Amino acid sequence: MHVKNTNTWVRLAYMVLFGFLLNAGGLVMSAIVFAQFLFVLITGKDNDNLRNLGQGLGKWVYQAIMFLTFNDETKPFPFDEWPIAEPSQGYSSAPRDTEEVVDTQEDSEELSDSSIPSFVVSDEGDNEAQGEEDGKPKKGD
Questions:
Q1: 45 three-state secondary structure
Q2: Which alpha helices (DSSP H) does 3-141 contain, by range?
Q3: Which residue pairs from 8-13 have beta carbons closer than 8 angstroms and sit at least 24 positions apart in sequence?
Q4: Closest CA to 83 of 51, 65, 50, 61
Q5: Contact of 29 with 53, CB cutoff 8 Å
Q6: Cβ distance 14 to 75 under 8 Å?
Q7: pTM, 2 dp
Q8: Cα-atom radius of gyration of the chain, to the nearest Å?
Q9: pLDDT at 109 (0 to 100)
Q10: What's the CA gap between 23 and 66, in Å, rounded?
């Protein structure tokens, strides 16, 4: 019987600990989000240190959830190293210079009836097809 397995009960203790730490992590993440928003409002760009902390915390939350759901046996921080934040592009409220401006005005001279594809048979084709259907002979027969 697996109920007497001490490893399972020890894991339960770790799971309870990481459950509490995840709740605290959620509060810290909320504070980071609020602080980042204030930085963007005041300075027009995000704070690199808060962005890196948020990325590391997000990775830690992922590792903790993987442990809690039995998808990983490795215990996350503080029993392992803190996740490494990879450099990412920051946010700036200033307009970017690399954006292309797309001209939405169409040149009316470029478009003509002949350049627009038609899925309707021409008038000549309609008359010929109608004549055949009516049983009337076509012109020239």
A1: strand
A2: 6-43, 48-68, 123-134
A3: none
A4: 61
A5: no
A6: yes
A7: 0.62
A8: 34
A9: 56
A10: 15
What gap in Å lies between CA 126 and CA 108, rounded to an integer? 30
Q: Burial of 54 by CB count in 10 Å (0-12 exposed, 13-18 middle, 19+ buried)?
A: buried
AA letter at 30: S
Q: What is the pLDDT along the chain (141 residues), one digit of tens a residue?
A: 788 888 889 999 999 999 999 999 999 999 999 999 999 999 989 999 999 999 999 999 999 999 999 999 999 998 888 888 888 888 877 776 655 555 555 555 565 666 666 676 666 655 555 555 555 555 555
Phi, psi of 92 (to 5 degrees): -140, 140
Instruction: Let me know: does 15 contact 68? Beta carbons within 8 Å.
Output: yes
Nearest residue to 79 via CA among 67, 94, 91, 89:
67
CA distance 41 to 73: 42
Handedness of CA 55, 61, 64, 70 (dihedral sign): negative
Q: What's the token pair of residue 116?
A: 């627009």
The first and second tokens of residue 134, run together, are 């009516």
Q: Which two tokens stand for residue 112?
A: 């003509």
Q: Do 52 and 85 form a contact (C-beta atoms < 8 A)?
A: yes
